[in-house]
Write a structure and sequence with these properties.
Structural class of chain B: alpha/beta
CATH topology of chain B: Beta Polymerase, domain 2
CATH superfamily of chain B: NADH:ubiquinone oxidoreductase Nqo5 subunit
Largest sheet of chain A: 3 strands, parallel
Helix content of chain B: 10-25%
CATH class of chain B: Alpha Beta
Number of helices of chain B: 3
Distance between the termini of chain B: 61 Å
Keywords (chain B): Transport
Order of helices and strands of chain A: HHHHHEHEHEH
Strand content of chain A: 5-15%
Helix content of chain A: 40-55%
Strand content of chain B: 25-35%
Radius of gyration of chain B: 18 Å
CATH architecture of chain B: 2-Layer Sandwich
Radius of gyration of chain A: 24 Å
Shape of chain B: elongated
Organism (chain B): Marine Group III euryarchaeote CG-Epi3
Largest interface: A-B, 7 and 9 residues
Structural class of chain A: mainly alpha
InterPro entries (chain B): NADH_quin_OxRdtase_su_C/D-like (IPR037232), NADH_UbQ_OxRdtase_30kDa_su (IPR001268), NADH_UbQ_OxRdtase_CS (IPR020396)
Strand order of the largest sheet of chain A: 1-2-3
Shape of chain A: globular
Oligomer: heterodimer
Protein name (chain B): NADH:ubiquinone oxidoreductase 30kDa subunit domain-containing protein
GO molecular function (chain B): NADH dehydrogenase (ubiquinone) activity; oxidoreductase activity, acting on NAD(P)H
Distance between the termini of chain A: 62 Å
Number of strands of chain B: 9
Largest sheet of chain B: 5 strands, mixed
């Protein structure tokens, strides 16, 4: 029989490597304990810790931070890339903010459609129980540094749906929120003010190259 | 077929009661649960009602009520000699302890999600439905929230 035939047939494929079908004799997979394998996130954390501690001990951290902070801060402050993600009626206002009347692009905003190219997540509507894991996934897919804006009453506290059986009572119950913009719905000017507040926050809070967000 | 003929034929069918005109081209009737499948098959095959507009579930405590809005949009029916689209409003009353009825999603494919929604929010079981899962709420949600006796346990604190 040809190799293609074996590959297409799972019954035959099982027999190619080991002759035995006795479950006692087949060796089980080793348990995937933390002591056995170094996962990629553990490796990254180890590298992060090592570099951070070495730079801290030699005093390089202070120097590099001081040198890179103005440059990094300037770049982050004037090019926040929000995720182009709309939930409910505040998304219409978000679109209106980009329209010629309130041209929000002059603050450096560029909407991107992939969370991997973004650093601001705008939660603009009520988050349902069914949406919550998806929104959490979107947040986790964004690269550091990242900020979250809760836009409108629904994203702040649940709004009119605060005691609903399926709406989460605020986005800050499951993700860290940096700026809250009240309004129902939020006007485009308020959204612009929210982004200016975020710029202010970045200018005051964000460190340089050695990023540690407490 | 004229609309008054349809009225007479529907009146003579088994399990049908309280047939009435509620508008010029709308007939409202009550239907027994046990003959629903036969009735709906005849309605689709013989009387040209080829569109299932709505399936609504109502909680009239203690009983449930299902309302089917079925439309004939092809112009086969006429009202006083004028071709006109027509609608039949079918009410089915269900017991609270066993709210189940035969599915019509094999007759009208669009009824599939309507029935899933009625199951999701009101807890009515459609026998013979190909895929009776929740539509709007997440999997694993306990209870059916649009029932009048549904109590949710979050947000119990007083404001």
């Amino acid at each position: 029989m040809s190799a293609k035939g074996i590959r297409g047939n799972p019954e035959l494929r099982r027999g190619v490597g080991s002759k035995t079908t006795d479950s006692e004799k087949i060796m089980e997979d080793p348990p995937a304990g933390d002591w056995l394998a170094l996962r990629s996130d553990q490796l990254l954390k180890w590298i992060d810790d090592a570099v951070y501690n070495a730079s801290e001990a030699t005093g390089m951290r202070e120097v590099v931070d001081r040198v890179t902070r103005p440059i990094f801060n300037f770049a982050q402050r004037f090019s926040p890339h929000p995720l182009h993600f709309g939930i409910m009626c505040c998304a219409i206002e978000m679109g209106q903010a980009s329209a010629p009347d309130h041209d929000i692009d002059r603050l450096g905003l560029v909407y991107r459609s992939s969370p991997r190219q973004c650093d601001v997540l705008i939660v603009n509507g009520p988050v349902c129980e069914k949406l919550r894991p998806k929104l959490k996934t979107l947040y986790e897919q964004m690269p550091e540094p990242k900020w979250v804006i809760a836009m409108g009453e629904c994203a702040i506290s649940g709004g009119p749906y605060w005691d609903s059986y399926s709406v989460v009572a605020g986005a800050d119950t499951f993700m860290p929120v940096d700026v809250y913009i009240p309004g129902c719905p939020v006007r485009p000017e308020a959204l612009m003010h929210g982004f200016l507040t975020l710029q202010k926050k970045i200018r005051e809070k964000e460190p340089g190259m050695f990023l540690r967000r407490e | 077929m004229d609309f008054s003929d349809l009225h007479k034929q529907l009146k003579s069918m088994e399990g049908v009661s309280k047939v009435s005109h509620i508008r010029k081209n709308v007939i409202k009737l009550d239907l027994e649960k046990s003959v629903s499948k036969v009735f709906f098959t005849k309605l689709k095959d013989d009387f040209y009602f080829e569109h299932c507009s709505l399936i609504t579930a109502i909680d009239n405590q203690p009983d449930f009520e299902l309302v089917y809005h079925l439309s004939c949009l092809s112009g086969e029916l006429s009202v006083d000699g004028t071709k006109m689209s027509a609608m039949v409003e079918v009410h089915i009353h269900l017991q609270r302890d066993s709210p189940s009825v035969d599915s019509v999603s094999d007759l009208w494919f669009g009824a599939n999600w309507h029935e899933r929604e009625a199951f999701d929010l009101m807890g009515i079981y459609f026998i013979g439905h190909p895929d009776l899962r929740r539509v709007l709420l997440p999997e694993g949600f306990a209870g059916h929230p649009l029932r009048k006796d549904y109590v949710y346990e979050i947000h119990e604190e007083e404001w």
